[in-house]
Each structure stands twice: as C-alpha cells, then as structure tokens.
Amino acid sequence: MLSSGMSEDRKRSLEVKDSAGEAVKLFLELVYTGTTSREFGHDSALSALDLAHRWQVQCVVTMLELALKEMVSDENFASIAAAAKLKGLHVLSSACRDFGASSSVVQKQLKARKLPGLVLELMGVKDAPAQGAAERDAGPSRKRRAM
C-alpha cells in the first residue's frame, strides 16, 4: 500500500467541503454502481455534476446530463442552462435550447434579458454579454503561478 502522508490516507475518508452531502452521495453511488434508486432534484444533480466534471468522471457526467435533461423547467431553466453552457454539455445544451424556445416564461425572460449572460449566449441572443465579462469588470485578477 502506498502512503502519501495525506490526511485522506490516515482517516480513510475524503472531505469535500464545497458540496452538499446529498450531492456527494449521489456522485459516489453513480461512480460505484452506475445507477441510483434515490430521489434527487436538480440542485443535487447540478452539484454532483460539478464534482463529476471537476474530477473528469465522464460516465457520471453523462448520466447526470441525461437526468438533468428530463428535469428542465421554467423554475430551474437558468441554472441548468448555465451549467450546460459552462461545461460544454451538448445534449443538455440542446435540450435547454429546445425547452427555452417553447417556454413562454423563458421567452419573456430572454426578451427582458433577465437571464445570465451564459444563458443568453446559449439561447443565441445577439449582443449577449461575453463569457467572463463580470470577472473582467471586477478588477485585476491574481496572477497564476506555473508549478
């Protein structure tokens, strides 16, 4: 057994501080079994998707992308569409575009530009704010250091 001296080795656990427990459980269940019997909503699915995308577990990304495709509604459209655009998820992006095109609520939000810039861009709104514009306007960024 290799030992790196990391606390995960000693504790035999891994802390994921920036994700809800239900999302971590969902992610792990999908990693280990490829399926789940638990009920979960879009928030848990999006959080689990963030983990899968960050850790490059493509099979879980695909499973959650397909699950989220079936969950898109007027209430969660913006958060799911933004995640689809940000992560380059083509199937989910297409489902969001289709949903948004047929939803009167989303169409009203698009016309009023009341959706995040990523979502406006996904929906093909002309003159949508460029991706990352908010970060550029926030001031100078910290320099990255090569390791």
Q: What's the Cα radius of gyration?
A: 18 Å
CATH superfamily placement: Potassium Channel Kv1.1, Chain A
Q: Mean pLDDT across all residues, rounded?
A: 86
Estimated helix fraction:
55-70%
Reported for the largest beta sheet, the result is: none
Second CATH tier, the architecture: 2-Layer Sandwich
Classify the secondary structure makeup into a structural class: mainly alpha
* Topology, number of strands: 0
CATH topology: Potassium Channel Kv1.1, Chain A
Give the uncertain stretches in residue-range form.
1-6, 133-141
Number of domains: 1
CATH C-level category: Alpha Beta
InterPro entries: BTB/POZ_dom (IPR000210), SKP1/BTB/POZ_sf (IPR011333)
Domain BTB: 1-70
Organism: Polarella glacialis
Protein name: BTB domain-containing protein
Commentary on this structure:
This is BTB domain-containing protein. It comes from Polarella glacialis. It is a single chain. The chain is mainly α and 147 residues long. The protein has a single domain (18-126), classed as Potassium Channel Kv1.1, Chain A, CATH 3.30.710. Helices cover 60% and strands 0% of the residues. The protein contains 9 helices and no strands. It has helices at 7-11, 21-33, 42-54, 58-71, 77-87, 90-102, 104-111, 117-122, 133-137. Helix 4 (58-71) packs parallel to helix 6 (90-102). The longest helix has 14 residues, at 58-71. The chain starts with 6 loop residues before the first helix and ends in a 10-residue tail after the last helix. Mean pLDDT is 86; it is low at 1-6 and 133-141.
